């Protein structure tokens, strides 16, 4: 009772604001109507590999975008909640670099909604790992925050350190697709203490953004080497690519 009274008093002094702007909203972490309309949620027909939006409607057959047809993914299925542009990009960058960790539960709920078609077979959820030195500087792994909330909302098995980075890699910003894949080659492996958890299981990898797919490919290959039965990926946002279905 006292806690509720304190919360009410705080909300009167500091009314909740939109997570993307200063507009007032009803809950502590939420979006105003204007920002919600500018958030490019992915729905309808999607690429089965990376989750990007495709024109037209799903006809029951597997659809893939040009990017995934040209660069087949090592994972079997993928989904994304948002297109990485506009307000969605602002939100992702706030979570990743702006200490906006309170955004993770809301964003994970969007990811869970997008990922429902690929969550069968009792998967185990794990995040894309950070190198320990980068973790010390950043203080948190935004992918782990998303993965933990995603698994909790979906009542799925969650293991935060199934994978580990074996070496510190440079930032991938402004790197070409070829450079990204070269840099990440053999940079991620299954954690030696947890290989038995991966063997024979379906693994769902969680990350904040998919651009080239190099990081998720390295993680997928590590899971498959450790004996995973299948690997699927879920990201908060997908960078826009050529999306002509074939």
UniProtKB/TrEMBL annotation:
It comes from the Bacteria. Residues 193-242 form the Phosphoribosyltransferase domain. Residues 10-69 form the Double zinc ribbon domain. It holds the Pfam family Pribosyltran. SUPFAM superfamilies: PRTase-like. Belongs to the ComF/GntX family. This is ComF family protein.
């Amino acid at each position: 009772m006292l806690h509720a009274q304190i919360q009410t008093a705080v909300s009167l002094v500091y009314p909740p604001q939109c997570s993307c702007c200063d507009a007032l909203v009803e809950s502590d972490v939420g979006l105003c109507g204007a920002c919600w309309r500018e958030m490019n949620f992915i729905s309808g027909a999607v690429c089965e590999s990376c989750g990007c939006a495709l024109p037209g409607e799903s006809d029951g057959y597997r659809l893939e975008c040009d990017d995934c047809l040209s660069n087949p993914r090592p994972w079997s299925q993928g989904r994304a909640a948002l297109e990485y542009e506009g307000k969605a990009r602002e939100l992702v960058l706030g979570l990743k670099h702006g200490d906006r960790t309170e955004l993770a539960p809301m964003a994970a709920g969007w990811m869970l909604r997008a990922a429902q078609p690929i969550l069968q077979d009792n998967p185990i959820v794990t995040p894309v790992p950070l190198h320990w030195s980068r973790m010390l500087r950043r203080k948190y792994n935004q992918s782990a925050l998303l993965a933990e909330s995603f698994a909790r909302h979906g009542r799925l098995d969650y293991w935060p350190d199934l994978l580990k980075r074996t070496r510190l890699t440079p930032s991938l910003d402004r790197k070409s697709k070829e450079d990204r894949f070269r840099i990440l080659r053999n940079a991620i492996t299954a954690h030696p203490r947890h290989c038995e958890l991966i063997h024979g299981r379906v693994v769902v990898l969680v990350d904040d953004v998919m651009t080239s797919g190099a990081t998720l490919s390295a993680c997928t290959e590590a899971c498959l080497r450790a004996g995973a039965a299948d690997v699927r990926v879920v990201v908060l946002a997908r960078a826009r690519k050529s999306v002509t279905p074939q």
